[in-house]
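Tokens in:
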């Protein structure tokens, strides 16, 4: 009976998750993963003309999308919704297991799941079209396994985590070390060996496909945005502000941070969070606040769930249930999740406009590389460098060494070498990049602008070199 009840609960969770996931991906980067999955199956990239895993942050997520599409789900929106719904179920299952290992009663487990789902932008990130939900699920499960001293399962999770999200590599290593600590050295070596066996196929796939052992997405953004060379006081302020804002929005789940220092595994969590924050401080501090803190959530939320679960063991059951119900009602009824519906529709609308109005032989210079690859069917060059490695080289030569002051030189080189005849600019970056192009001798004629009232949209310019 318990097995039947569990299957029914997970099936219901999947149905709800699929319903909560919008038809169009909430973040443009989701379409990069989708496009890469299509390239894996077809063997050719007609848009960027690069191997499938170029520009991919999560090869494991691309593999999942490839399997879904290969199974017959051809519609990209359906493939993304299925992948996110499965990740949603995986996260809820991981929370259930975490509550069980900590020793929570059934009502407290339900409260943990409800509060973990309803705090902050968690529902948004579980349905954003990306691998975020899967990353949070695997790390949460790894933490539960470490607490329960299930070393084999921790090793499997540790081997997979860096290929769901590269910035979770410190957490993967530290959780593995915590689980193996104090065990005989043969068990420690076996655990490490198993993690490497799990990691090996992803490393080899990346190496064979792209020529590199690791994804270059973080490096591309680091060089383009050129924030690593900012004064350390400014970078400290940016990291601290993003972290504090994220914790504030995650209340009451963020109360779990107070319990982390009381256990050895919790202190490991605090250390892994600190290492990740330091890494972003060095390379790309502004990333922590982007996309409704989408980089921070997998780094922080699983550990907050662990700390909150520990704290729930000392909370009255009635209080826990009341807080959970109140938060769910507030989150789902009073404050529905509509943060980026407008932007999601604009991604699709602008790409479809390009497909209808731009000549088939045109080359697009783009700032966002995702939606274009799924809906526009035109050759494109990624100005940032995620899908166009040559752009990384340009920003490494001019943009980053000058702390962004010479970005216009890199933009000029990329535009001229690519032969781009159109520029697609995102609000916020469209104006400075347009100014860079105009300063380098290009004439830009606006052919399409975002609809009136759209806060984040795409302007399509026709490019021509002034005589």
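Residues out:
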């Amino acid at each position: 009976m318990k097995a039947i009840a569990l299957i029914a609960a997970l099936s219901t969770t999947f149905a709800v998750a699929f319903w909560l996931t919008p038809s169009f991906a909430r973040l443009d980067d989701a379409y990069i993963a989708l496009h890469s999955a299509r390239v894996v199956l077809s063997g050719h990239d007609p848009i960027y003309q690069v191997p499938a895993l170029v520009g991919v942050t999560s090869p494991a997520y691309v593999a999942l999308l490839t399997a879904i599409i290969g199974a017959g789900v051809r519609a990209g929106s359906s493939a993304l919704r299925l992948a996110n719904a499965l990740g949603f179920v995986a996260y809820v299952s991981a929370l259930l297991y975490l509550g069980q290992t900590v020793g929570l009663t059934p009502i407290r487990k339900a409260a943990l799941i409800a509060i973990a789902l309803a705090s902050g932008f968690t529902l948004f990130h579980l349905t954003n079209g990306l691998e975020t939900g899967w990353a949070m699920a695997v790390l949460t499960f790894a933490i539960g396994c470490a607490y329960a001293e299930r070393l084999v399962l921790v090793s499997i999770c540790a081997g997979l985590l860096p290929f769901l999200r590269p910035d979770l590599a410190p957490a993967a290593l530290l959780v593995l070390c915590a689980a193996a600590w104090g065990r005989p050295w043969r068990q420690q070596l076996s655990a490490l060996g198993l993690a490497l066996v799990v990691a090996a196929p992803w490393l080899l796939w990346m190496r064979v496909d792209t020529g590199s052992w690791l994804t270059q997405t973080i490096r591309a953004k680091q060089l383009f945005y050129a924030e690593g060379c900012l004064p350390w006081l400014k970078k400290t302020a940016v990291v601290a502000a993003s972290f504090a804002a994220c914790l504030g929005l995650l209340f009451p789940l963020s109360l779990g941070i107070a319990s982390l220092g009381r256990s050895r595994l919790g202190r490991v969590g605090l250390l892994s969070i600190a290492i990740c924050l330091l890494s972003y401080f060095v390379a790309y501090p502004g990333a922590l606040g982007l996309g409704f803190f989408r980089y921070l959530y997998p780094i922080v939320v699983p550990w907050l769930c662990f700390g909150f679960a520990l704290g729930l063991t000392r909370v009255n059951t009635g209080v826990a249930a009341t807080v959970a119900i109140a938060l769910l009602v507030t989150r789902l009824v009073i404050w529905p999740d509509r943060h980026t519906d407008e932007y999601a529709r604009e991604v699709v609308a602008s790409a479809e406009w390009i497909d209808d109005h731009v000549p088939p032989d045109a080359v697009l210079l783009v700032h966002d590389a995702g939606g274009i690859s799924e809906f526009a069917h035109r050759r494109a060059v990624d100005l940032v460098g995620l899908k166009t490695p040559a752009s990384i080289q340009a920003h490494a030569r001019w943009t980053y060494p000058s702390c962004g002051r010479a970005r216009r030189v890199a933009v000029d080189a990329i535009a001229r070498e690519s032969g781009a005849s159109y520029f697609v600019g995102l609000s916020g970056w469209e104006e400075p990049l347009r100014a860079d192009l105009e300063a380098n001798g290009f004439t830009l004629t606006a052919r399409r602008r975002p609809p009136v009232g759209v806060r984040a949209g795409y302007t399509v310019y026709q490019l021509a070199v002034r005589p």
